[in-house]
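Ticket reopened. Same input as before:
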Amino acid sequence: MKQTKRLALAALLTALALALNYTERMFPLPLLVPLPGVKLGLANVVTLFALCYLGRTMAFTILAARIFLGALFAGNFSALLYSAMGGFLALIVMALFIRSKRLSLYGVSILGAAAHNIGQIGAALIVLGNSAVIGYLPVLLVLSVASGSVTGALSALLFRAMDATKLQWNI
Amino acid sequence: MHKLHRLIPCLAAALLLLCGCGSKDASYTDFFAMDTSMRFTLYDNAGLAAKEEILRLEALLSRTKDDSLVSALNRGEAVEDTELAALLHKSLAYTAATDGAFDVTIAPVVSAWGFTGDSYRVPAADELAALLAQVGGEQISIHGDSVTLAEGAMIDLGGIAKGYASDRVAEIWAEAGVERGLAALGGNIYCRGTKTDGSLWRVSVQDPNDPAAYVGILSLSDAFAVTSGAYERNFTENGKFYHHIIDPATGYPADSGLTSVTVVSHNSGTLCDALSTACYVLGEEDALALWRKIGGFDLVLVTADGRVLITEGLEGSFDSSSAANPYVYEIIH
Amino acid sequence: MSTKSSIKRSFGFFDALAAAFVLVLAALVAFGFYGQGGSDGPLTATVTLDGETIGVYPLATMGEELLLTPEGLSYPLTIRLTSDGAEVIESTCPTLDCQHTGHIHRSGESIICLPNKLVIRLSGGSGDGIDAVIG
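Engineering reply: fixed in the latest deploy. New output:
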């Protein structure tokens, strides 16, 4: 793929990730987990896609861009910490498991979502300095099975659509 | 979509897990009455009617409510009420049985110390002497259902009202067919039957020296238990410690060598309430003498010199094994 | 390079295994965290500000309610302690999550106000299997 095309695609994906970030606010997560800044992690669809089609470096770059811009738009530092720890942990875990012959997109997404939430609780732990936040981890982990399944399904849809295009596969 | 049918069991499992957290058999009803927080532990709604009864009693017996029967009495009016008359008969019986250690007419003295409100003060000796003239069982006149007080006398049923309320809870629960439950009315408890797993109700007795610890755990069924202690309400002035359990003989806070008294009975909450105050005033020797003389109840006494005395009726029902403290435990026969 | 992705796309056994693993992890954390309930004695509320404990309140024998307005908060709030738990009844923090948490009454539960770095945590109580406290 030509460089400019890659760049344009990366920018598009970053925008998509930011949009997903914004959309997931519709889910009443604060009712279950009253920690401001905690997110479901739907934007991991983009990370997964980037990992599969564009390579690890691109995935990392898009993630970094999404995190930086997301914090800029949100306007506070702790949002950056949550996004960063959650996003990067998810990326690492998904990158690890994506080569597995046994797990499908669903398994990878679920594990990515779980990693995302563990990262977020880790961030809360740093910010608050009190282990009380660990009390919310069980709920988040259970939710990650659901949200991971959703992102997995979205990815499956997306990848099938991708098959129709001529985009080169790149793991 | 043909892949989604595998998603559903996943989500279902997730939801089920969420629901499983924290579901219990018992339900708790919390409310505030008689100046304290109260809680019913019940397994169905049949016992909730008792809450209305407690509120009714509060309206009737509270010294701080202007339209209560007690306030009317304290203003010098004659009051005609079967229930109040019966309760005051009981109070007088306890006064006699405890040689005056329990006395509802101690009200003016308690007020003089500021315990009725929250502005504590140390009254002068002659002030107390004058007030003590109005203290004594003879200040209450009961003819049939009609009650009057002698001139200048006042009563405070704070030392017996919750105990009486717990008796009424027991009666109402019996009528309503409640098989098991626990009513915690401040420091007065009544427990009925056993818990759903067949185990007895576990009631811990607070350590008078450490509010976060206990001296032991009582295992009870169909029983009443009340604890009194100086640590509940007190103040310090000029380096001296004053508390709310006034000795009707002296007008001063009881200094009897006890830091906490718990009375347990299977028959009467009113008795437990009255005797917990009385035994605190009486001290170790006289309290145990009373126990030997009239019986029908058991005691847990915590002494200022570090002993916990348990009368033999509670042997086997009082568990101090998990209480980490330097007290010396003794069973009294 | 092929144009088809080599990762599986349909939900299979190992995906369910991954999901189960996450759920088991959740259960373990929940047990480890909330199972610590009954250290010693009755229900107690511990209030910490920025990691430092600013108050320990034994709740079980609390007669009336206790209203706390801790000092030194960036966003002042009022905590209400009763004999069976705690809640934040008034707060000036931007997200009000602390207030929305509502009333907590079980050991291990906590109310967290992140903007203030304030945590109210309950401990003790149910662990000993104590049904009531008299004292």
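Chain A touches chain C through 53 residues (CB under 8 Å). Residues 3-163 of chain A form a domain with the Arp2/3 complex 21 kDa subunit ARPC3 fold (CATH 1.10.1760.20). Please confirm and we'll close it.
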